[in-house]
Amino acid sequence: MSDRPVILVVTAADEDAEEYRGYCLESVASHYDVVLISDAAPTWERSHVIDVEIADPHDQAALGAAGRALAERHDVAGVMTWTEWYVVPAARLARQLGRPTTAPEAVQGCRDKYVSRTLFARHGVPSASSVSVRTEAEAAAAAQQIGYPVVLKPAARAASMGVIKVDAPDGLPNAYAFAARTADDGVESSRVLVEEYLNGEEISVECVTYRGKTTVVAVTRKTVGLPPYFEEMAHCVDGADPLLTTVAPTATAALDALGVTNGISHVEMRLVDGRPRLIEVNARIGGDLIGHLVRLATGVDLARAAADIACGRAPDLTRTRSRAAAIRLIYPAHSGTLTARGLDTDVAHADWLERLRFQREPGDRIQLPPQGDIFSARIGFFITTGPTGDVATARSARVYRHLQVEVTREAR
Asked: What is the pTM of this model?
């Protein structure tokens, strides 16, 4: 028998999970014995876990039964997840098992963007004007009240799904239909929000909270594209980013307002006239390998920190390096069929190209919004490193120029 602590991880069986969350499981499994609850039988995860229960995490009763079964077989010290859809069920499970967690009600407040906006306003955290609506007519009235341009979004989705900018009244009907269609797929809320458009650079702040005290670890600079949508095209983390001290107080205030007491948070905001304004708080490690970028840039392991906190242990947030890392997500210029993808040998073997992954094969259909989303449109990604953010980003641009990606438009 192992003498290592046992941690219960709630996650999704997803064909792209190994590429984007494999580093999390690998890190946690290097320090803990991992027992897993997933909605399907594990594949690549098998080598990292010691026991598994299959249950739909959206079904709280089934999740609870699976958690109790694992707790009967193992001395489970904590419960964690890095899957956005499961943050609330995982918090409820942790509470049921008597393990450390942010209150499920607070995690639900992170998931519901309207609740978040309400709490930000109540506690004086700079955010955006927001109105919750259920019909197109209500959306039009709210947009008129707030003033164009506005942003429409589902109240409880993730990854910019269903989020769209509207510049004038004539664009609102189609935009509302797009946001409402995505919102209807949600299990927590079908509401649509009409919000003030925050015109400024988009960033996220990667935070660690332990027993109510938050440490701001890193800033992620973002590139957002495919207007009028808000698809995230690239991220860069610089371990010496001077913006950290500017945005840390606002990120901390947002977490305090929501009642976040334990765990990793991915706090999204925009800088409007140089001042931070909150977009949303995600109560888990950032997606798109942001946690991996943070480790490359600072040495801080957010996945292990999340596991430590879930088990009631103080996380080690010692910064052991100060470099930079950038990820570029590969999207086509238009929808169609992928016919070729590759990289010129000029940069394929550069020591600063940390990894390159293609997720789609020639012959696959690639579909951009509004018909598709980030999952159907993304062809792959690559990560570059450097001594500074500028260098890592410049190297990313160089790799992008040497990509060979061909997508054939479909005949109409």
From this structure: 0.94
What span, in angstroms and rounded, lies between the C-alpha atoms of 188 and 115?
A: 12
Phi, psi for 48 (deg, rounded to 5): -105, -5
Distance of alpha carbon 169 from alpha carbon 180, whole angstroms:
17
First to last CA, the chain: 62
Please, are residues 301 and 295 in contact by the beta-carbon 8 Å criterion? yes
Q: What pLDDT score was predicted for residue 185?
A: 52
Neighbouring residues of 351: CB distance < 8 A, sequence distance ≥ 6: none
Residues contacting 3, CB < 8 A, separation 6+? none
Q: What are 99-141's pLDDT values in tens digits? A: 999 999 999 999 999 999 999 999 999 999 999 999 999 999 9
Contacts with 284 (C-beta within 8 Å, 6 or more apart), sequence order: 81, 82, 83, 84, 87, 263, 264, 265, 266, 306
**Structural domains in the chain?**
6-99 (3.40.50.20), 108-121+198-322 (3.30.470.20), 129-196 (3.30.1490.20), 324-412 (3.30.470.20)
